[in-house]
Design a protein that fits this description.
about 220 residues; Rossmann fold; alpha/beta
Length: about 220
């Protein structure tokens, strides 16, 4: 059986990843392909507990290296429990965030640097890389306004607070933004950048164009 295809969506919080991964999954299902959809942090019982710790605003004083270690603990569990079994079974996996997020947020935003992130990726993830990464890059201002507004609404509606990162200063997110651009420049064959303050439909259209081409190349649709 041919190995499956690993597709990730990346970008700042508020870039529209969660909406677009749902729309991409629905597009695939209409074409007879049912992908495995997951997210990081989270996507497993253990990962969901790690996610709560990492994203809750009450998790104050978390050291950058501890934060990065938790991200990789979540990722190792996701690979073992969800991603690798699905790929081995020939499935398409759609994942909301992967190691690029750690390189951008902890490597760039926390100023740990790319080298420690990539070394941990090699050791813990066995070097597993996405076959295709869709990097959503609306303007920094738009992303932050969406993310902060979304978190305020979530707290008001459910009491669930996942806004620890949204409390960071704009300079932090500028470093994250720059790190994402550096990853895309370093790996242009893997990372497809969808940039600008586009409508949901326009972003979806660009995504499916890229994905359809990749699937056609692999004779998957």
């Amino acid at each position: 059986m041919p190995r499956g295809l690993f597709i990730t969506l990346e970008g700042l919080d508020g870039s529209g990843k969660t909406t677009q991964i749902k729309r991409l999954a629905a597009w695939m299902q209409k074409r007879g392909v049912t992908p495995v959809v997951t997210r990081q942090p989270g996507g497993t019982a253990t990962g969901d507990r790690i996610r709560e710790l990492l994203l809750d605003s009450r998790s104050t004083g978390l050291a950058p290296m501890a934060e990065m270690a938790l991200m990789f603990a979540d990722r190792a569990q996701s690979i073992a429990e969800v991603i690798e079994p699905a790929l081995a079974a020939g499935r398409i996996v759609l994942c909301d965030r992967f190691t690029d997020s750690t390189e951008a947020y902890q490597g760039g935003g926390r100023e740990i640097g790319s080298e420690p992130v990539l070394e941990l990726h090699r050791l813990i993830c066995g070097g597993l890389q996405p076959d295709l990464t869709l990097l959503l890059l609306p303007s920094l201002e738009v992303s932050l306004n969406r993310a902060r507004g979304r978190n305020d609404r979530a707290i008001a509606q459910s009491g669930k607070d996942e806004g620890r990162f949204e409390q960071e200063q704009d300079a932090f997110f500028r470093r994250v933004w720059d790190a994402y651009r550096a990853i895309a420049a370093r790996e242009p064959d893997r990372v497809a950048v969808i940039e600008g303050d586009l409508s949901l439909d326009d972003v979806h259209e660009q995504i499916v164009d890229v994905v359809a081409m990749r699937l056609s190349e692999l004779h998957r649709v």
